[in-house]
Amino acid sequence: MYTHTLHQQAKELATSSTLDIAGTDLNFFTRLLSNTEQMHDLFMQLYGHRPDAAAQFARLLQTVVAAYAGRSAVLRQLDDEKLAKPEPWFTSHQLVGMSLYVDRFAGNLAGLQQRLHYFEELGVNLLHLMPIFQSPPNESDGGYAVSNFREVDPRFGSLQELQQLQQALHQQGMYLMLDIVLNHTSHHHAWAVKAKQGDAHYKNFYYFFPDRTLPDQYEVTMPDIFPESAPGSFTWVPEQQAWVMSVFHNYQWDLNYTNPAVLVAMLDTIFFYSNLGVDVLRIDAPAFIWKKLGTSSQNLPEAHTLLRLIKLCVQAATPGMALLGEAIVAPAEIMKYFGTDRYTARECDFAYNATHMALQWDALATGDTRVMLAAQYELLRKPYGTSWITYTRCHDDIGLGYDDDMIRAAGYDPFEHRRFLKDYFSGAYEGSPAVGALFGVNPKTNDARISGSLASLCGLEKAVASGDEGQMSKAIQKIVLMQAHSFFMGGLPMLFYGDELGAMNDYSYLQDPGKSYDNRWMHRPLLQWDALPYQDETAIAGRVFAATRQLIALRRRLPVLADRSNLEWMTPHNIHVAGYVRHTAAQRLYCVFNFSDKDAWLTWYAFREKGLQSATVHDHVSGKDLSVGTDREYLVLPPFGFMLLEGV
Ligand code: GLC
Q1: 144 lines ligand 1 (CB under 6 A)
Q2: Which pLDDT tens digit goes with each residue over 529-544?
Q3: Per-residue pLDDT for 191 more than 90?
Q4: Active site residue 219
Q5: What is the per-residue burial (b if ≥16 Cβ within 10 Å, else e) of 540-561?
Q6: Nearest CA residue ID for atom 9, ligand 1
Q7: Ligand 1 atom showing the smallest separation from residue 395 Cα
Q8: Which residues contact 252 (CB under 8 A, 6 or more apart)?
């Protein structure tokens, strides 16, 4: 609905910052006007009861206008180019990403810039730099405890070097992804330091409690995130003789979004990143940004209201930056981060397909794809125009947080099934080839997640230790299967650095007191390039690298793999095989994956049932043509093998 006063407010702001709203800045002004009413509406849902609501909303609008006014001509031009694409730019099959720690991958930012040729060789064109802003060395949580959102930590280099890298990336047609740690700051952040000194304004940036009364009540329903290393959700602050909310580690203080000044300050930080030229902003832990007594304080409706509001602001001022919500929560809850009802496809552009990632590990351990298939009903509801980050591993643990019903649908007992998976990947299950560890073990709930690198969880570490060439090949085949299955599903594949080289668990973290309490570091390797002959295809690193490069090349060659909500699951004729069809009006690509260590036989009817008419199919993986048999004949997939078949 049109509101004259809001129109005037937006117009005055835009004209006062010398924008030409009837000329060069008309597109911005149109976007701003189109969104202002909804921005106001969402803002008032959260803050309308406060006497300062109108003044705070005015500050929010000012922040949006200032962000656009401060955006460089180059980035504005890029915004226009991205918006002009017929489909959202970030759903393209041309994009392939990699997450990496700048220091552990290349020493520092300058070193990374010198290694850009590596990504070109591999085919990766989007880099997710793990957090590089200032963070206290021994209380860092891998950079997710930020003490200054706008200064690069000297360990990595300088802000100027980050800008140089960003420009180099854009010149090469590459994209940049960074994090915004929205939920909390380090207790060394200037806001927290002032709060410790008793500054009332900044104390309101956090949740302070004079005694345990409310913290105790909150903790009845708030789950522990790091039950072993940081039990509880509150930390005693001696300087204030008070408790502060700290859901993650005790050095990560939760920001208080019931205070609109926090939202405005963090929105301004978001725009700082947009104007650095970030193409995808990973919003860290958005599920946690709103807290309410008597709830888990995760996935609350107000968290979605905040994200929608942020999306509207970003869309107005810096629309070329896509938003990724890192919500690693139950499947039905993940879906909501794409927006619901009138906000469908208008919240986060991306979410991690964490459910599917974990289900791939489920299928690999059991050799049975039924649990994976049982979950797809939920995942296929992703709205058109949004996309997944598809992945097999990232810097975090693997959580088994999919629904019990999905496990039951496959005929397993959820408790026993999860116990098996935990035993299998932590190596406790006799005969398991995996070398990993349990993370976040909670004796109260029996929950645990899994740490370990892709290669070690696939059995490479054990195979190398035993020197068994057959086992090594099998492990490599599993690595490639896992990557392939996630690469072709639709969504932006995000490799985790080192996985393309078969990097195994790195136990050096145990020697570092800032890391030894957190076994996620075992799968965050410190790369020793001399020991990684990735161009030698007889070496392990080279074999995995070549196979990964082939997967990337395939994705980039086949437009049908772009995410157009064009995925249909094949009927499970064989429980070991997961198959999906990627389709456009002109093309159908049958992607079939054998998760078992034996040959898997798949009736040709499975393909015909999904529209295959031709007598011959071409396998894009092997480059070979195969004759299609009758319904009583079978396609044979080798152990952990996969094919991408297209009728010819
Ligand atoms: C996210 C990050 C994780 C971190 C947590 C707290 O889940 O991926 O590494 O520990 O947020 O910031």
Answers
A1: yes
A2: 999 999 999 999 999 9
A3: yes
A4: no
A5: bbbbbbbbbbebbebbbebebb
A6: 396
A7: 9
A8: 141, 144, 145, 184, 185, 186, 187, 246
Of 100, 255, 284, the one to substitute when testing ligand 1's pocket (max ligand atoms within 8 A of C-beta) is 284
211, part of any domain: yes
Active site residue: 141, 284, 362, 368, which one? 284
Is 498 inside a domain boundary?
Answer: no
Residue ID of nearest Cα to ligand 1 atom 3: 396
pLDDT of residue 630: 96
pLDDT for the residue numbered 49:
98
Q: Judge whether residue 110 has pLDDT over 90.
A: yes
Taking residue 20's Cβ as centre, other Cβ atoms within 10 Å add up to: 12
Last residue of a domain, one of 198, 225, 254: 254
Q: What average pLDDT does range 502-530 have in this prediction?
A: 96
Residue 108, pLDDT > 90, answer yes
Structurally, how many domains does the chain consist of? Answer: 2
Which of 212, 237, 254 lies at the terminal end of a domain, its last residue? 254
- The gap between the terminal CA atoms of the chain, to the nearest Å, is 53
Q: Which helix (DSSP H) or strand (DSSP E) does residue 442 occupy? A: strand 437-442
**Nearest atom (ligand 1) to Cα of 142:** 9
Task: Let me know if residue 338 belongs to a domain.
Answer: no
Percent of the chain with pLDDT over 90: 95
Q: By three-state DSSP, how is residue 97 classified?
A: strand
Instruction: Report the CATH number at residue 244.
Output: 3.90.400.10
605: CATH: 2.60.40.1180
Least confidently predicted of 6-10, 371-375, 455-459, 490-494 = 6-10
pLDDT at 13 (0 to 100): 87
Q: Inform me whether the pLDDT recorded for 11 exceeds 90.
A: no
Helix (H) or strand (E) holding 185: strand 184-186
Q: Is the pLDDT of residue 344 over 90?
A: yes
Residue 596: is it exposed, middle or buried by C-beta count within 10 angstroms (0-12/13-18/19+)? buried
Ligand 1 probe mutation, 396, 521, 524, most atoms within 8 A of CB: 396
Which atom of ligand 1 approaches the CA of 144 most closely? Answer: 12
Catalytic residue (choose from 254, 268, 279, 326): 326
Q: What is the mean pLDDT of residues 448-462?
A: 98
Residue 183 CA, closest ligand 1 atom number = 12
224 is catalytic: no
CA 325 to centroid of ligand 1, rounded, Å: 12
What is the distance between the alpha carbons of residues 602 and 568, in angstroms, rounded to a whole number?
A: 17
Averaged pLDDT of the chain? 97
| Structural domain of 211 | 190-254
By CB atoms closer than 10 A (0-12, 13-18, 19+), residue 177 is buried
Binding site membership of 141 for ligand 1 (Cβ less than 6 Å): yes
The predicted model gives 61-74 an average pLDDT of 97
Q: Is 456 among the domain residues?
A: no
Residue 430, pLDDT > 90, answer yes
What's the gap in Å between 126 CA and the centre of ligand 1? 21
Beta-bridge partners for 588: 583
**Centre of ligand 1 from the C-alpha of residue 558, in Å:** 34
Does ligand 1 lie within 6 Å of residue 396's CB atom?
Answer: yes
Whether the predicted pLDDT of 317 surpasses 90: yes
- In angstroms, rounded to a whole number, what is the distance separating the alpha carbons of residues 634 and 61? 62
- With a 6 Å cutoff on the Cβ, whether 248 touches ligand 1 is yes
pLDDT digits (tens, 9 = 90+) for 393-426: 999 999 998 999 999 999 999 999 999 999 999 9
For residue 145, the ligand 1 atom closest to its alpha carbon is: 12
For atom 10 of ligand 1, the residue with the nearest CA is 141
